[in-house]
Structure formats: structure tokens, C-alpha cells
Write a structure and sequence with these properties.
The protein is mainly beta and 315 residues long. The chain has a domain of 103 residues. It has one helix and ten strands. The strands form two sheets. It has a five-stranded mixed β-sheet with strand order 1-3-5-8-9, with no helix packed on it. It has a five-stranded mixed β-sheet with strand order 2-4-6-7-10, with no helix packed on it. The longest helix has 13 residues. It is rod-shaped. It starts with 20 loop residues before the first helix and ends with a strand.
């Protein structure tokens, strides 16, 4: 509906006109249907009201009560500095299929402490986009959640990556867990390796723990050394006891390398039975050497290798 028609043709009233009853009724009807801009009220237009020109400026509170929708077919809504769009409790911002929320370069989206962001679909990060997680922030993945990284995607951490109890890092067939030269891996827990281990290159080597013992007896466990370098220079008799605490796992091995500068006897004692299972002995006052290897088998230490001027017993 546009403007009301003039009550008198052309809206021209000249002189001191007499108003007819029909004209008065027409004016009265139009006044009754007009919007009361000062006192307000409730109206139900039967057709759409279109406002063009310079538009509308509203300085008070606008309430859209039981409004079905506000439709913007073109143009945009500007929210200026200091203004806000607030989604209050129980309300939501619904982006329909095919719609998009675009954040321009230099803009930001801030989720305050205690807020929650839920993604039920895919999240794409394109170009050189970056997700910055500040100190103390946490990415939490619930039971059954999966993080898939494809192509040449990489994860860079200058801090630490923690896998809590029950968690696991799995590299599937064809995947690679690669450590560059200069990197290191510290493992303080037991390992189970069901595949082969291959050493390659000039740096491909295994470093074992070595403990030196000179002119003394000692008790040595699997938590101390893989190789014992045992030297005697005074010709006295000494013994090395292979400890049972901590309890070795089946197949754990300790190797003893013996060097004598004077004739003397060196016994290797099984800590589980207190029996001498290997004896180093030189009959001449000359420099000599030998070695033996003991392996934890059947809840005791047993000789599984050796060579020297010696004899073994109860191995």
C-alpha cells in the first residue's frame, strides 16, 4: 500500500472550504488507519510496507516480537566500532547449507575462557593458515576421536607432545616415524619390538652401558650395566655377583670383560643360587684377559658364552 489518495482532488483546498460529510468520513478513516508515531500502537498491514529514500534511523530499542524472518536480498549490515551483535542464552547463529562465515585478513575470532566450540563436520585449514594455541590451552580429543593428516601435512612442536594413560601413537603400514640427524629419543619404559631393527649409515650403532670395576668385588644388576669391564692388578681374588633385584626379564644379558695384570682368581656368582657359574683364573703372572656372558633363564643366571683361561661350573 502506498500513500492514501487525497480526500479532495489534487489536495487543493482554496478559500474557506466547506468540508462535506463524505470528505470528513474519508479523512477520519485515513487518520484511524495511519501510524501514530508519537504514542505508538499495534498495526497489522495487509500488504508489505516498503521504505526507500534515505531509509530509517532508529535511536531507541527495536523489538521484533514473534518475527518469522528478516530477509536481506542484497547489500550488507555494517556494525560499527563499539557496537555488537549479541547471541543471547538459548539463541543461535544458524548458517544454512551453502552459506559461509568469512573472516577477512587482519580480523579475528575470539573464544573466551570457558567457552566451547563444537565441530560436527569437517574443519579445513587452507593456504598458510595457522592455528595458534597459547600457553595453558588444551586440544581435547574424546574416546574414539581421530586426527587424520594427509599429503605433506606436518605437525611442528617446540614443546612436548604427551600421550596419557591408555593413549597410543600408531604408524600404519607404509607410514614412517623419522628422526633427523641430531635428534634423540629418550625412552624410560619397556619396549616391545616385533619387527626387525636395521642400523644404517655412519651413525647407525648401538651404545651399551659400561661399568668399570678395578681390584674389587661388586654386585651388578641389569639396571646398572650391559658390559662390566673388570680389571685386577694386585693378584687378589675377587667376585662379581649378578644381582636378582630388580628381577631381570627372561633373556636379559650381562657381559663381563676380565683383564688381569697379575695371577688371580675372579668368580662370577649367580645371585639367585649363590653358586659360582664362571671362574676367571691365570696360572702365570702375565697379562691375560677373557670374557663371559650370562643370561637370565628360568629364574636364575646361566652362562651362555665365554672364553678365557678359566673353567665354569653349575652353568
Amino acid at each position: 500500500m502506498g500513500h492514501f489518495d487525497f480526500t479532495r482532488s489534487g489536495g487543493v483546498w482554496t478559500g474557506t472550504p466547506l468540508v462535506t460529510a463524505d470528505e470528513m468520513a474519508d479523512l477520519d478513516s485515513k487518520t484511524e488507519r495511519a501510524i501514530n508515531g508519537d504514542e505508538g500502537g499495534t498495526w497489522a498491514p495487509t500488504t508489505v510496507i516498503t521504505i526507500g529514500g534515505q531509509g530509517v534511523t532508529i535511536t531507541g530499542t527495536s523489538i521484533l516480537d514473534d518475527c518469522q524472518s528478516i530477509e536481506l536480498t542484497s547489500g550488507f549490515i555494517n556494525v560499527y566500532n563499539g557496537a555488537e551483535i549479541r547471541i543471547l542464552t538459548g539463541a543461535k547463529l544458524d548458517v544454512q547449507s551453502g552459506g559461509e562465515v568469512e573472516v577477512d585478513s587482519g580480523a579475528s575470532v575470539v573464544f573466551a575462557a570457558g567457552s566451547t566450540t563444537t565441530f560436527a563436520g569437517a574443519v579445513g585449514i587452507s593456504g598458510t593458515a595457522t592455528i595458534g594455541v597459547s600457553s595453558g590451552a588444551v586440544f581435547g580429543f574424546g574416546s574414539g576421536a581421530i586426527v587424520n593428516m594427509g599429503g605433506d601435512m606436518s605437525v611442528t612442536s617446540s614443546g612436548s607432545l604427551a600421550v596419557n594413560s591408555g593413549g597410543a601413537i600408531t604408524v600404519a603400514s607404509g607410514g614412517v616415524f623419522a628422526l633427523s640427524a641430531g635428534a634423540s629419543v629418550s625412552i624410560g619404559a619397556a619396549q616391545t619390538i616385533s619387527g626387525k631393527v636395521t642400523h644404517s649409515g655412519t651413525g647407525g650403532r648401538t651404545v651399551k652401558r659400561v661399568k668399570s670395576v678395578t681390584n674389587a668385588s661388586d654386585t651388578i644388576g641389569v639396571d646398572e650395566a650391559d658390559i662390566v669391564y673388570w680389571t685386577t692388578t694386585d693378584g687378589n681374588n675377587y667376585s662379581i655377583t649378578l644381582a636378582t633385584s630388580p628381577t631381570p626379564d627372561e633373556g636379559e644379558t650381562i657381559e663381563i670383560r676380565r683383564r688381569e695384570l697379575l695371577a688371580g682368581q675372579g668368580n662370577v656368582i649367580d645371585g639367585a643360587t649363590s653358586l659360582a657359574i664362571y671362574r676367571f683364573h691365570l696360572d702365570t703372572a702375565t697379562i691375560g684377559s677373557g670374557w663371559m656372558k650370562a643370561t637370565w633363564i628360568g629364574s636364575r643366571w646361566r652362562v651362555t658364552g665365554g672364553q678365557s683361561e678359566c673353567f665354569t661350573s653349575d652353568s
